[in-house]
């Protein structure tokens, strides 16, 4: 049976497992690019805690790069799914070609701007005299590899729309394995320290990107990357940006929150408070990335069936995705609340860092059980092309709620106010998302 036809006829449970499990593996692997770096960095003798803080200062930049990756990657993926759902392969290849050009152009722009304004940006993002050196050593190399960072994520997303989730997972797994091996080699054997972690990450992304380019040019892909499609079409670019804007906006908002949080943590706490937030963010990634994997797996199913006007199948996919996501985050919440010291000590067991981090991780991620529902709900509207609703729900938690809470609560609760801001915004955003989901379910029933 044709890969695309399967999306409209196979049982939803089977499809969701088939597409989501490889996507979950892929997203976990994507998370491990950063998490493994931080684990190795935290273990560097004598400087581990401060080096972690240096990486924490660079997180807003890393998040911005991920945001651009999602702008192009998810925008192109949804566009390709909807196009293939209507049976138009030629337009799908045009979208793929335009996406590749955008990856390169946006990567160059970010690299140039980042290197020119590096120190000013890092100080604005919370770097101190003690941590600026480590932040600079790390981000210099990451910025040089921005094209490959964007391409490795974005091309991987499009491969799922191409109907090959196993290939998508395999390329991500390859990159992660390379990253882990190179981390150890460059940090501990070549003694490159924090710089070695950045080199390992970039080289892993280069290898992943090259493998995916080969897949689209000489491999078994449904869509082919052709030279004649490497010319920007303004209508395609607008379509990619319109659909990809919601996840892009969410990541840019997350970057803004990280900047505000870093400066609040620096003002009401100390450098190690920023390091603790870097650890907390890494831990949350481990549990949230599977949810993004479910989103990635469900997206082509929802997009294809919505494009084919099989609305009952889109609704059923959403239901199963919400249940699966909620189970995952509930497991994560139990682990975090019962064993916070053990979770944080994976990165570094410094007593001062543990003292700050244990309270922070318990409070900041207290509403984690609700986030699966909130994230999957936002993704549904994005998958069916309802950009305005998707954008609102994506920004709700990260901008409309979290930024004001992060600015206001520390004035009353000190550094604990930063942790409380996360819990408050997660709860309110989930409740509001629930209202939109209920309305959508009723609309689909009709």
From TrEMBL:
GO terms for molecular function: antiporter activity; xenobiotic transmembrane transporter activity. The keyword Transmembrane applies. GO terms for cellular component: plasma membrane. PANTHER family: MULTIDRUG EXPORT PROTEIN MEPA, SPORULATION PROTEIN YKVU. It is a multi-pass membrane protein. The chain crosses the membrane at residues 21-41, 61-84, 96-118, 138-155, 167-190, 196-216, 236-260, 272-295, 316-339, 359-377, 389-413, 419-438. The lineage of its organism: Bacteria, Bacillati, Bacillota, Clostridia, Eubacteriales. Belongs to the multi antimicrobial extrusion (MATE) (TC 2.A.66.1) family. MepA subfamily. The keyword Amino-acid biosynthesis does not apply. InterPro entries: MATE_fam, MATE_MepA-like, MATE_MepA_subfamily, MdtK-like. It is found in: Cell membrane. It comes from the Bacteria. This is Multidrug export protein MepA. Keywords: Antibiotic resistance, Cell membrane, Membrane, Transmembrane, Transmembrane helix, Transport. Its main location: membrane. Coiled coil: none annotated. Signal peptide: none annotated. GO terms for biological process: response to antibiotic.
């Amino acid at each position: 049976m044709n890969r695309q036809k399967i999306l409209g006829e196979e049982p939803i449970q089977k499809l969701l497992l088939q597409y989501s499990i490889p996507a979950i593996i892929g997203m976990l692997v994507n998370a491990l690019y950063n998490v493994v770096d931080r684990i190795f960095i935290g273990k560097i003798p004598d400087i581990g805690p401060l080096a972690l803080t240096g990486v924490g200062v660079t997180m807003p930049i890393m998040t911005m790069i991920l945001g651009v990756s999602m702008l192009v990657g998810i925008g192109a993926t949804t566009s390709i799914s909807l196009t293939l759902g209507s049976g138009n392969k030629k337009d799908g290849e045009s979208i793929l070609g335009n996406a590749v050009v955008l990856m390169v152009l946006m990567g160059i722009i970010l690299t140039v701007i980042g290197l020119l304004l590096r120190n000013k940006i890092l100080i604005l993002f919370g770097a101190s005299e003690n941590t600026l050196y480590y932040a600079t050593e790390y981000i210099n190399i990451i910025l040089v590899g921005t094209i490959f960072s964007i391409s490795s994520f974005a091309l991987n997303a499009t491969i799922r729309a191409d109907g090959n989730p196993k290939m998508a997972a395999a390329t991500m797994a390859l990159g992660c394995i390379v990253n882990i091996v190179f981390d150890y080699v460059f940090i501990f054997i070549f003694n490159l320290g924090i710089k070695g972690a950045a080199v390992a990450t970039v080289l892993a992304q280069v290898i992943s990107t090259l493998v995916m380019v080969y897949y689209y040019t000489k491999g078994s892909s449904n869509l082919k990357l052709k030279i004649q499609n490497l010319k920007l079409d303004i209508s395609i670019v607008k379509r990619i940006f319109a659909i990809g804007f919601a996840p892009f906006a969410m990541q840019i908002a997350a970057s803004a929150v990280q900047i505000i949080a870093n400066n609040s943590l620096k003002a009401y706490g100390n450098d190690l408070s920023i390091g603790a937030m870097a650890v907390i963010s890494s831990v949350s990634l481990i549990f949230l990335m599977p949810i993004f994997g479910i989103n990635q797996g469900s997206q082509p199913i929802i997009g294809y069936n919505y494009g084919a006007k099989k609305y009952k199948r889109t609704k059923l996919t959403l239901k199963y995705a919400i249940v699966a996501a909620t189970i995952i985050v509930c497991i994560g919440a139990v682990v975090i609340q019962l064993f916070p010291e053990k979770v944080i000590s994976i990165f570094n067991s410094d007593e001062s860092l543990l003292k700050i981090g244990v309270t922070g991780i318990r409070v900041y991620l207290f509403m984690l059980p609700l986030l699966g529902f909130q994230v999957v709900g936002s993704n549904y509207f994005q998958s069916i092309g309802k950009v305005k609703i998707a954008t609102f729900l994506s920004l709700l938690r990260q901008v409309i709620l979290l930024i004001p809470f992060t600015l206001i609560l520390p004035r009353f609760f000190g550094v604990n106010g930063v942790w409380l801001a996360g819990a408050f915004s997660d709860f309110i955003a989930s409740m509001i998302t629930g209202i939109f989901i209920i309305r959508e379910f009723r609309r689909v029933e009709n």
